[in-house]
Specification:
Radius of gyration: 26 Å
Distance between the termini: 34 Å
Number of strands: 41
Shape: globular
Number of helices: 9
Largest sheet: 6 strands, antiparallel
Helix content: 10-25%
């Protein structure tokens, strides 16, 4: 077996490392193990021969024992201070740089696979897939050879979000933990940081990297206090939070210490992402993004971006053809992860809408469509949520209603509405997921018990006004269905309460077995039952969680839909999406409230925008809001233009405010959904621009995806 000699260099700004120790580990499952015993080094370099084993991903922990600043020698006493770097052996041609930047980049991106011992040793363990994704994201933050990543340091990141300044602040936290001055609280800097970072009540943080790893459990804990530790201290690593330009002091203070990456390019300058709604991951860990709009217009998009595992465009991105037209919430990947289906909903004028609705299907390796030019249309009318069950059956929400959703003007669709329905394309007998449906393999349920008013019982009806939005199979032959509902004060027959149904495959039919109707009564029309439900999920207990836009809450229902078990309504802002990870952490994607024209004549953007994270669902009051503030620069598109282009704020009737150029400093916008990749990164869909009501008829789509690094359990 051949070996490769790897050089290492330990570097911290403004100091010379004179001695320390190190230990290297293979980090892929089945090849886990220490390459060496803990070994001392002098000065700041060392080299190690590593066997070219099947574990090609490695981590090195370095402990600093002694260093020099301005000709004065200092020794580390008390809590250990360790550094971390990760590397991919086949790519190493230059020294691996070990420093605060490599430590922060690695601990955030490998967080879900990492454990830090009390002595500072970092143990990372996972599959090769886990490591591939985490390492790809790590290089977006900091490259192994010692250069800041292009993605985090330039648009749409850079100073358009606060993540690049936050990264530098985290490096400053490391530096001052190393030099350990006494600060305004009267404590040494290092101990104060260990106290402020989240830890279990019965335990304490024992070292810097352990504390940083714990930051990701509760990144809001003492967030402002951690920031204040750096006020008044010299920026060793410049461009940090404290020196962000064009911002007030209060605007610089983060509410959470997450690191994010934003991606807004499709890979083709002519096809900018606009109105991302949903994302699924294929067998190569490519992210397939459902894309609503043609950028700069309210018309249906005919393309969908595909990102590699590191959030850069795939070679064949964006995909086109196969009937793609205004993809909304519909995206699903087959159980073998080789075929991706998008649901075509359609937006805008009648010339940019599918009359029937359809799905488009693509092969994962080359992005080529396997669906016909009009898509697969059997049984469908305006597709929203969709998902495969573990038997390979594709469940789809068919909205049916041709009454326009924003951004279309009322009355623009001269098509006949179809009944709202759940449609299932059964798995092809030969198991070829690339094939389309046949009549014999298609199941349709379009009759449901519908409640029209509080004083009337539900009646079995076929109606387009249920507006079925999402469907989630329980993998036992059943599925749960969420309905937006509809209120029409002039035509009672067009009313339908927001509802959740349980549907089962029985014989060769779809049958409704249970139902639940919302009794929410605080919506804008003040009518009971119109909660505007969106995504639905199933937790580890089999309970059903459904989010409501009008109610700004998630409702938890028993599996038979007979009982409301509770609500998640703290730090929630009109959520569209709900995702529950393998540790039962709940993530809600907040669309945010609409602009209030009467009280907000300048049409400024409303919020806050972000993701609600609930680590302990039994304590809804502990929910925290993860935001992505600006770094002081205006949000721009992949082509370099401002998000709003030349669009101006309209002057309202009798308003004293003149028209102003629309500008945006909200890098995370109106979210519709989140999903989790194989390293625990949370991908969030920027669906609409922040000024929702301003954008409806003109320029609606948001600008791509925002990824919270290492925040969830890997899928």
């Amino acid at each position: 077996m051949s070996t490769k000699t790897v050089q290492f260099s330990v570097e911290v700004k403004n100091m010379t490392i004179t001695s320390g120790s190190f230990q290297i580990f293979g980090i892929v499952e089945n090849f886990i193990g220490a390459v060496n015993n803990k070994t001392s080094f002098e000065n700041n370099t060392f080299s190690v021969e590593i066997k070219n084993a099947e574990s090609e991903y490695y981590a090195v922990t370095v402990w600093v024992n002694e260093y020099i600043i301005q000709d004065t020698t200092y020794k580390i006493e008390g809590e250990p201070l360790s550094l971390l770097a990760t590397f991919y052996l086949p790519d190493i041609t230059a020294p691996v740089i070990v420093n605060p930047e490599s430590s922060i980049a690695s601990i955030y991106t490998f967080a879900r696979m990492a454990k830090v011992d009390d002595n500072g040793t970092v143990h990372i363990k996972g599959t090769e897939r886990n490591m591939k994704i985490a390492y790809g994201m790590k290089k977006n933050l900091y490259k192994t050879e010692g250069v800041i990543g292009d993605m985090i340091s330039t648009s749409p990141n850079g100073f358009e979000t606060n993540s690049y300044p936050m990264f530098n602040s985290l490096c400053n936290l490391y530096y001052y933990s190393l030099t350990n001055p006494i600060i305004s609280t009267g404590k040494h800097f290092y101990r104060q940081f260990l106290d402020f970072a989240w830890h279990k009540p019965s335990e304490s943080n024992k070292n810097f990297l352990q504390a940083v790893r714990n930051l990701l459990h509760d990144p809001c804990n003492n967030a402002g206090n951690i920031y204040k530790m750096l006020i008044g201290l010299k920026e060793i690593y410049p461009d940090s939070l404290v020196s962000m330009k064009n911002m007030t002091h209060d605007q610089k203070i983060p509410n959470n210490w997450t690191l994010t990456l934003k991606s807004n390019s499709s890979g083709a300058k002519n096809f900018i992402p606009s109105g991302a709604a949903f994302v699924v991951f294929d067998a190569d860990d490519n992210a397939w993004i459902a894309n609503n709009f043609r950028a700069g217009s309210p018309d249906s998009g005919t393309h969908c971006p595909v990102y590699k595992y590191d959030a850069t465009p795939a070679d064949f991105s964006p995909v086109q053809g196969g009937g793609l037209l205004g993809v909304a919430f519909g995206a699903a990947v087959s159980p073998d992860k080789k075929y991706i289906s998008f649901g075509n909903f359609g937006w805008g004028s009648e010339y940019n809408n599918p009359q029937e609705g359809s799905i488009s299907r693509f092969y994962y390796k080359d992005g080529k469509p396997v669906s016909p030019s009009n898509g697969f249309t059997l049984g469908l009318s305006r597709v929203q949520g969709m998902e495969y069950d573990n038997q390979g059956n594709l469940w789809m929400a068919s909205v049916g209603c041709q009454e326009p959703f924003a951004p279309a003007n009322p009355g623009v669709y001269p098509f006949e509405s179809e009944p709202s329905a759940v449609v299932v394309y059964l798995k092809p007998e030969d198991g070829d997921f690339g094939k389309g449906p046949t009549e014999g393999s298609t199941l349709i349920c379009h009759e449901f018990p519908v409640k029209r008013s509080p004083d009337l019982p539900p009646l079995p009806l076929q109606t387009p006004y249920l507006k079925i939005f999402d469907v989630i199979p329980d993998h036992k032959g059943n599925a749960y269905v969420s309905c937006i509902g509809n209120y029409d004060k002039d035509v009672p027959e067009n009313c339908a309460f927001s509802a959740v149904y349980k549907v089962a495959i029985q014989g060769n039919q779809l049958v409704v077995t249970n139902s639940w109707f919302s009794n929410y009564s605080e919506s804008a029309n003040k009518q009971e039952g119109y909660e505007s439900l969106r995504q639905i999920a199933i937790n580890g207990n089999g309970d059903v969680v459904v989010v409501g836009v009008s109610s700004s809450r998630a409702t938890v229902l028993s599996k038979d839909l007979s009982t409301v078990l509770g609500y998640y309504d703290v730090n929630t802002y009109a959520p569209w999406g709900v995702k529950i990870d393998k540790n039962e952490t709940v993530f809600l994607a907040n669309f945010g409230h609409e602009t209030d024209f009467k009280n907000n004549p300048t049409l400024d953007m409303q919020g806050p925008f972000g993701v609600t994270m609930l680590r302990n669902p039994s304590k809804p009051e502990t929910a925290m809001l993860l935001t992505v503030p600006t770094g002081g620069s205006e949000v721009t598109l992949a082509n370099g233009y401002p998000l709003y282009g030349t669009q101006r704020k309209p002057k309202l009737h009798e308003s004293k405010h003149e028209e102003l150029q629309m500008k945006c400093y909200q890098p995370i916008m109106r979210l519709t959904s989140t999903n989790i990749d194989g390293a625990g990164n949370l991908w969030c869909m920027n669906n609409w621009k922040p000024s929702a009501l301003v954008d409806v008829f003109d320029n609606p789509g948001g600008d791509g995806v925002v990824i919270f690094l290492g925040i969830a359990e890997p899928e």
